[in-house]
Write a structure and sequence with these properties.
The protein has 494 residues and is of the alpha/beta class. Strand 3 and strand 4 form a beta hairpin.
């Protein structure tokens, strides 16, 4: 369908068309000229009148025009088009379109030729029935899923993860809010947030205990005590003289005893530090003792191939989350390196999904998770550990990590500093395309990077199952509470 004509100056990447038909932003258009068949995307639309421009200063004239026949007042609608590719050879456009070049809407077959050549369907190309497909292999370059609250991040993660698992792929979701525990159980493996202390480094455990990096004396005391305890437990396990259930119950006191032993070897001035470490051990086990379990397998052994593995972080505080997630990331990378070297370790690639990534990958805090996520962003591609970060606060993310997420699925973003930050950390994103993000409806997304042949605007499929994190129906929940109160009242009256 003819929608308008090229006007004004054009380049090999941008042109302007005068529209004769109403077309929404994000629509795909085709311009044919000089043997070129240019596919473009309508990035912005403006309207106005040559008679009534921003220099108009006569209010009396405006009153008369407002009361006149509106059909007699000239109006125009202009659209800015980003030229994506020459459909004749799927290479960049080399000649700008001349004025009066007709512009039409792209056909489904034309869009299908560009956007349906991937391996995994995530939705439909916006405004069409064309399947929007991504190249799963390109996830080796990592992925960021960014969006404002309520724009469809969780739905996108659910669709992407379940379809990867259906292809035989392995996904591990670090579930910040417990949203994904209700995914389709046939392909979901729920993992309790438990760690075997024998597999933890002193630094990982110290973080869980809230022993800060600058508390050097406390850390030194704890490290010595923890290493001594691990040696003792391993010796007893080797001899077969231990009951793990009983040992788990005694673990807090055994650890504090070791710390106390360290105090006897320490200088007197370290006494306060020793007491502080003992207090932190006791406080941690009182609140989060269920996380530490000597019977827990190595986290690598707890991951099922071909499943969406969900680690529920919701019972934990931020420090415990940091220690647990960083431990998983460290073990995945180490185990995949071992596999490449010896054939052992973790025998299949894994895609890790970090929800609310701005918490643990903050640009302002140097958490242990950020250290290992940075290493995976740099090295993971070679060894088969891939990172997906999900955030509603892009501006809060570490710049170096975000810039290494070469692939991006960006849903609705409104906050200007978020959009600016995303633009600055993306090589293949234009300012006009970023401005479009504010107008997206829930579930609509811009996809860029090697996972697609060209920038793509897509309507993400709706996940078929339930997500625990969906917005509550307030009226329904209020009504339910009222009904329960009425039932209780009637029971009392009887």
């Amino acid at each position: 369908m003819l929608i308008g004509y090229v006007i004004g100056e054009s380049t090999t990447t941008w042109t302007t068309i005068l529209l004769k038909e109403k077309v929404r932003e994000g629509s795909y258009v085709v311009l044919e000229y000089d043997g070129i068949k240019a596919l473009g995307i309508l990035t912005s639309i403006t309207s106005g009148s040559s008679m009534i421009d921003d220099k108009m200063g006569d209010i009396a004239l405006l009153d008369r025009l407002a009361n006149a026949d509106s059909a007699k007042i000239p109006r125009f609608i202009k659209g800015k088009v980003r030229l994506l590719v020459d459909l004749t050879d799927l290479k960049r456009v080399t000649i700008p379109p001349p004025p009066l070049t007709p512009a039409r809407t792209a056909t489904d077959d034309e869009l299908r030729d560009v956007y349906s050549r991937g391996t995994l369907t995530i939705g439909k190309v916006l405004g069409s029935d064309v399947e929007a497909k991504i190249d799963v292999n390109a996830l080796t370059r990592h992925l960021a899923i960014l969006a404002a609250t309520g724009a469809g991040k969780s739905n996108t993660v659910a669709v992407l993860s379940t379809r990867i698992s259906e292809m035989g792929g392995t996904v591990v979701i670090f579930d910040y809010h417990g949203e994904y525990t209700s995914l389709n159980r046939e392909k979901v493996h729920l993992i309790e947030p438990k760690l075997n202390p024998l597999n933890l480094s002193p630094k990982e455990f110290a973080i869980m205990l809230n022993i800060r990096g600058n508390a050097h004396i406390q850390y030194r005391i704890f490290r010595r005590a923890f290493e001594a305890l691990k040696d003792e437990i391993r010796e007893k396990l080797a001899s077969g003289g231990l009951d793990l259930k009983e040992l788990n119950e005694k673990l807090p006191s055994m650890l504090t005893d070791k710390v106390e032993d360290m105090s006897k070897e320490s200088e007197k001035k370290k006494g306060d530090s020793v007491q502080e470490v003992m207090n932190k051990i006791e406080e941690f086990f009182e609140e989060y003792g269920q996380v530490i379990d000597l019977s827990a397998p190595d986290v690598v052994d707890n991951v099922r191939r071909g499943y969406v593995n969900v680690v529920d972080l919701s019972p934990l505080d931020e420090d415990a989350m940091d220690a647990l997630v960083s431990h998983y990331l460290r073990r995945f990378l180490v185990a995949r390196k071992e596999n490449k070297r010896t054939g052992g370790g973790l025998k299949f690639p894994v895609i890790t999904v970090l929800e609310e990534a701005h918490v643990l990958l903050s640009k302002d805090d140097n958490k242990l998770t950020k250290l290992w996520a940075s290493r995976i962003a740099r090295e993971g591609r070679k060894f088969g550990v891939h990172l997906v970060i999900v955030s509603q606060r892009p501006k809060g993310l570490d710049e170096n990590i975000l810039s290494q997420m070469i692939n991006k699925i960006i849903l609705k973003l409104v906050e200007p500093t978020d959009k600016k930050y995303v633009l600055e950390t993306s090589d293949n994103l234009s300012e006009d395309m970023v401005e479009q993000l504010s107008a997206f409806n829930p579930g609509e997304a811009l996809v860029i990077g090697p996972i697609v042949r060209l920038p793509m605007i897509v309507k993400i499929d709706k996940y078929g199952g339930e997500l625990a994190g969906r917005d509550p129906n307030l009226l329904e929940e209020w009504r339910k509470a009222l009904d329960e109160e009425n039932v209780q009242r009637q029971a009392l009256e009887w």
